[in-house]
Structure formats: C-alpha cells, structure tokens
Design a protein that fits this description.
The complex is a heterodimer of chains A (191) and B (286). With 191 residues, chain A is of the alpha/beta class. Chain A has five helices and nine strands. Chain A has helices spanning 14-30, 49-58, 74-84, 101-104, 154-162; strands at residues 36-37, 65-67, 96-100, 123-127, 136-139, 147-149, 169-174, 177-181, 186-188. In chain A, α1 (14-30) crosses α2. In chain B, the strands form three sheets. A seven-stranded mixed β-sheet of chain B has the order 1-9-8-5-4-2-3. The chains are: A alpha/beta (191), B alpha/beta (286). The A-B interface holds A 14-16, 18-20, 22-23, 25-27, 29-31, 57-60, 62-63, 95, 114-119, 121, 123, 140-144, 164-165, 169, 182-184 and B 5-7, 11-12, 14-16, 18-28, 30, 32-33, 55-59, 114, 139-140, 142-144, 175, 177-178, 196, 198, 211-217.
Chain lengths: 191, 286
C-alpha cells in the first residue's frame, strides 16, 4: 500500500468505473430515498469514497467546484485538480460543492438557476455521518407513495423545494454510500 | 474491440451528458441544453438517443433497440450493432430481458420494471415549436408556465375536426409544471408514461435532454368536455389476436386487402409463442 498522494486514488478503469458510478448517481437522483453503493475512487481525507467517486464521475475543467470548510485542504485541492482539472471556486459561482451540512449552510450562497434555465444551479455533495431510510417523509417525482431519508436539515431543504423549478440538488454521501434529493421532492416531517 | 473508448464517446463528453441527465431528472419535463456531438449516423437516426444511451450503459447491461415497435428495422439493427461493437454489451429483442431500451416512437406494450431505463429518440423536443418558432419566446413561455397557446391548438383541432386530432407527439404536462413533447409516440402510449422505469429523452440535432423519473405524474392535455382518449385501430392483431396492443395497418395487395399487426414485434412474437392465434396467422405461417 503506497501512501496517498495527489496522483493516487483515481479510477483504475475510468470508462467502466465512471459508468457504474453514474448509474448509481442517476438511480438515486431519479428515486429519492434510495441508497446505493458508490465506489471507485480513493480520495484523500476528509473526502468520503462516495463523494470522491462522484467528483471524478461528474467534474472536469468545465465545472467549478467549491470546497467548503475543512474540505478545502491542499490535499483535496491537489487531488481534485490532478484528476479532474476542475477549477476551485467560490460558492456563488460553483456548479458543484462539497462539504458537511454545517459548512455548506446557508444554502442562499449557491446558484439556484434562472427561470429560463433552471438547470444552471449548483449540485451540493453533502458529507453525512449517517445515511438511512428513516426520518423525513419524501414524496414527488421518482417516489411511489412516500419514501424516507435521513436529512440534515428538513426546514432548509423544504425552503429549497419551495423554489421549484429553481433550487439546488443534493447528493448525500456517507462512506461508500450515496442518496440524493432533487429540488422536485416534497419534504414533510412527522409532528 | 479496443479501437473505441467504451460506448464510443470520450469521457469528457459523457460527463457533460451525465450532468445534463441529472439536472433533467431533478426538473422533470424541462429540456436541458447539452453540447450534442456529431455521431457516426445522420441526424434523425437517433443521435440524441445514442448519446444518452452511451452515457448510461455499463458493460453488464443488456440493450434493446426498437424502431416504431420493431426490433428488426434498419434503424434498430444499426444502433444495436453500434453498441455491440463499441460497448460490447449484450443485446436482446426481449423487453423483459433488457436493462436499457432505446426506442424510436413507441413505448413497449410490456410493463417496464424499476430496474429498467428507457431512452427515447426525439426529433423536435419543443412541444411549442410549431406554434412559436422562436426559441427565445418558447423558453419564456416555459418559464412563465404560459401554455395557453397549446390549449388553443387543441381547441382548433376540435373546432375543425370535432375531436382532438393530434394522434402522436400528444403534449403532456409533467409533474404539474412543464408541458413536454413525449416524442412522436402514438397517443395510445401516453398513459404508459407514468411507469416504474426511468425515462430519458435525447434530441441530438436540437441539443436537448429531458427526463421523467419513475412514478411521476404525467397528464395528457385535454378539456373537461373533450377528455383525452388513448386511441388505436379498432381491430385485433391479425397475427396474435391481441386486442390491447397498438396496431400497424399493412396493405396486402392492390385489391384493398389489409391486415393489422402489433407494432411491438416482441409483444406479438411472445403472444404467438404462447399459443395466441389471430385471423391471418395460419396463412402467414404456411
């Protein structure tokens, strides 16, 4: 086992590993509440395997990435730059952002798209301590009746959903697991 | 096959398409612009669908291609071979066994499962395009949810023909927000748009990708007094006897004889194998 450097920890077989990673990402985005395994990358700490794999799958020189708080380390910046070429940016112009919920909040600093181009919004990769199909009740596109997902902050995410069709979209990562919450999902919490 | 990257497209192109697919799933029915590439087939032959399939396929997938319901037409055969050669994926004609299905102008008769993905080839993604040619205007109409023009069009159908005469590419409203062109599927297929599988739409020449996640509300536009009707030829299939499938009319000779057959060839074949017999089945077998 060699030491982690900025050059290590990328995909061994990029076309195939990225294809598998994207299928997991697409499945959870299409079906909020679903949790999938997401592996392939060995990113430097504090990035999780799932978050690192998502970044390698989706980011390149055309996407600005914001690293929030403790994720903005030399190690992460160098790794991301070497493997993806993605420019590191401020929150206000980022296409993707990575961080813990506390460091990414408040959501107001991220792009939510425009009325004519709602796709021009940020995708947030939220590193979580736990990820389970419990807690907030989700409904909407992709969900048969209802689903449940542990969300870091239901009121803030409800406010994001209220912006629909604008708003941010979220991946929640924990270790090598991933779930997603698009802006189209309605969130309710049990009283 | 090592001359191509897996599934033909380079990785940066696939990332760009994948990002568009994710945003399309997050805003169902909204057309996400993407930098469509030139593909080794002409526009109108499914370049959008091929790019979406290429970004979606994994080596373990089983791929099926249908063209107007048929697995054995030129377009379907050439796209199937394209991915056999460039992605090395298994292919099938059986809807049941496929994990990714690329389709032109039909939705399979069989109910799709949660683990399946269907990719539609789309010629004109903008449902308002024939009513308003300017992209700047249609984009504004979508942003303001201003779809009155579409209802006027359907109303004019009724005033001229006594019924909504739009028979294919029948406009739908997705998740109570965006009016979407379901690609030129017959309106018979519209009720199937609420399904368990992920539906992706790719328009290559027009450079748009859009999507409908599973279990998303999809409503065909209509009026209270002229409700939407999923119509088909009032006839059973002459080969398999199916009364619930969409039919093609085939002219048999110049004496006016004709037959109706399932447009979904896999559905028809599996019914005939199960022993169902239609009016002209024996003659054809002979």
């Amino acid at each position: 086992m060699t030491a982690q450097t900025q050059f290590s920890g990328g995909f061994q077989n990029a076309p195939v590993q990225a294809a598998h990673a994207f299928r997991a990402a697409m499945t959870v985005m299409a079906q909020p509440g679903e949790i999938r395994d997401l592996r392939g990358a060995q990113p430097p700490k504090p990035l999780s395997i799932a978050a690192g794999t998502l970044l390698l799958t989706l980011c390149d020189p055309e996407t600005k990435v914001h690293l929030a708080g403790e994720f903005n380390t030399d190690g992460v910046r160098e790794w991301l730059t070497f493997h993806t070429g993605a420019p590191i940016s401020q929150a206000a112009v980022a296409d993707f952002a990575v961080g813990s919920w506390a460091e990414l909040s408040p959501l107001g600093s991220f792009r939510i798209g425009t009325a004519e181009y709602p796709d021009r919004s940020a995708t947030l990769i939220v590193e979580c301590d736990a990820l389970q199909q419990a807690g907030a009740i989700l409904s909407g596109p992709g969900i048969k009746d209802t689903a449940r997902l542990s969300l870091p902050d239901a009121p803030a995410l409800q406010a994001n959903a209220a912006l629909y069709p604008l708003g941010c979209d979220f991946f929640f990562t924990c270790g090598d697991r991933v779930a997603a919450l698009p802006r189209s999902t309605q969130i309710s919490v049990e009283a | 096959m090592n001359e191509y990257n897996f599934a033909y497209l380079d990785e940066q192109t696939k990332r760009m398409i994948r990002r568009a697919i994710l945003k399309a799933l997050a805003v169902p029915g909204y057309q996400v612009p993407f930098a469509s590439r030139e593909m080794p087939m002409p526009y109108g032959w499914g370049t959008g669908g091929v790019q979406v399939s290429a970004a979606t396929l994994t080596p373990e997938d089983t791929f099926k291609v249908i063209d107007q319901g048929a697995d054995d037409t030129t377009n379907a055969v050439s796209i199937r071979k394209f991915f056999e050669n460039t992605a090395g994926v298994k292919t099938t004609e059986e809807t049941e066994k496929a994990t990714v299905i690329q389709t032109r102008h039909r939705t399979p008769e069989a109910k799709l499962r949660k683990d399946q993905i269907i990719v539609y080839q789309v010629p004109i993604p903008e449902p308002l395009r024939f009513l308003e040619p300017r992209e700047t205007e249609t984009r504004k109409m979508h942003s303001l949810e201003e779809y009155g023009l579409m209802h006027v069009k359907l109303y004019e159908d009724i005033s001229q023909h006594g019924a909504i005469s739009t028979a294919y590419a029948y406009p739908v409203k997705v998740s109570d927000r965006y009016v979407m062109d379901p690609s030129p599927i017959p309106k018979f297929d519209n009720p199937k748009l609420e399904m368990d599988a992920i539906q992706l739409f790719g328009a290559g020449r027009e450079q748009r990708i859009y999507a409908v996640p599973p279990h998303t509300k999809v409503v065909s536009l209509d009026f209270e007094d002229y409700p939407f009707e999923a119509t088909k030829a009032d006839h059973p299939c002459d080969l398999c006897g199916a009364e619930d499938s969409y039919l093609d009319e085939v002219i048999m000779d110049d004496a006016g004889n004709r037959m109706f057959v399932c447009s979904d060839t896999d559905y028809c074949r599996s019914r005939r194998e199960a022993g169902h017999v239609g009016r002209l089945a024996e003659e054809n077998a002979a």
